[in-house]
Description:
Helix 2 (about 15-25) packs antiparallel against helix 4 (about 100-105). The protein has a single domain, classed as Clam (outer membrane lipoprotein receptor (LolB), chain A), CATH 2.50.20. The protein contains 4 helices and 11 strands, in the order H-H-E-E-E-E-E-E-H-H-E-E-E-E-E. The radius of gyration is 17 Å and the shape is globular. It has an 11-stranded antiparallel sheet with strand order 6-5-4-3-2-1-11-10-9-8-7, with helices on one face. The model is unreliable at about 1-15 (pLDDT under 50). It has helices at about 1-10, 15-25, 90-95, 100-105, and strands at about 30-35, 40-50, 55-60, 65-70, 70-75, 80-85, 110-115, 115-125, 125-135, 140-145, 150-160. It is α+β, with helices and mostly antiparallel strands. A hairpin with a 5-residue loop joins strand 5 and strand 6. The longest helix has 10 residues, at about 1-10.
Amino acid sequence: xxxLFFFTHNAYSSNKEDVISNLQNIENLSFxxxxxxxxxxxxxxxxIKYPLKINCKYDTINKKILISNGKSLVIKNNTGAYYLYKxxxxxxxxxxxxxFIISEIKKAEERIIGEKFINYxxxxxxxxxxxxxxxxxxxxxxxxxxxxxxxxxxxxxxSVKKNMKLGKNLFNIPLRD
Length: 177
C-alpha cells in the first residue's frame, strides 16, 4: 500500500514541485551560455555558486569577464574597461539567489513553451524576470531580463553541470589594471 501511494504521488507530481526539488539540491552550476543583448550575441562559460556568486568568461576578442563575489559585480576586459556595480542593483541579484527563485516559483503561474520548456515570470523592484527550465530534467536553461541600462538580455544555458568542485578564489573581484 505504501508503494502504491509513493508511485501515485510521483506519477502526478507537478513540474513546479520537480523544478523546486531540483533547485534545492544545487549548490553550484557550470554551463556554456549564449547571451543576446538587443541583438548582439556573445558566448562563453559561467559558474554560479548560490547565493549571488558568478564567474563568466566571454569568448570575445577582448576577453571580457563578469564576476560577482555576492556583494559586488565587476565587468572587465583586456582593453581597460572596468565596471563595478553593487549586485543588489542588478537583475542578477535575483537570478543568482535560488531561495528567491524558489519562493517566487511557488507563487507564479507556470507556462509550458513548445512542450520543451517551463517558464515562470516574476516582478520584483521594477524588474521583470523570466526563468526557463528544461521540461524533461527540470534544469535551469536560461533567463530573460532587462539589464541595468534597460537592454533586453536573453541568456541561454547549455552543457549544464551541477555541484562541481570549485576553486577557492573563483569569485574574488579582480582589481582594476
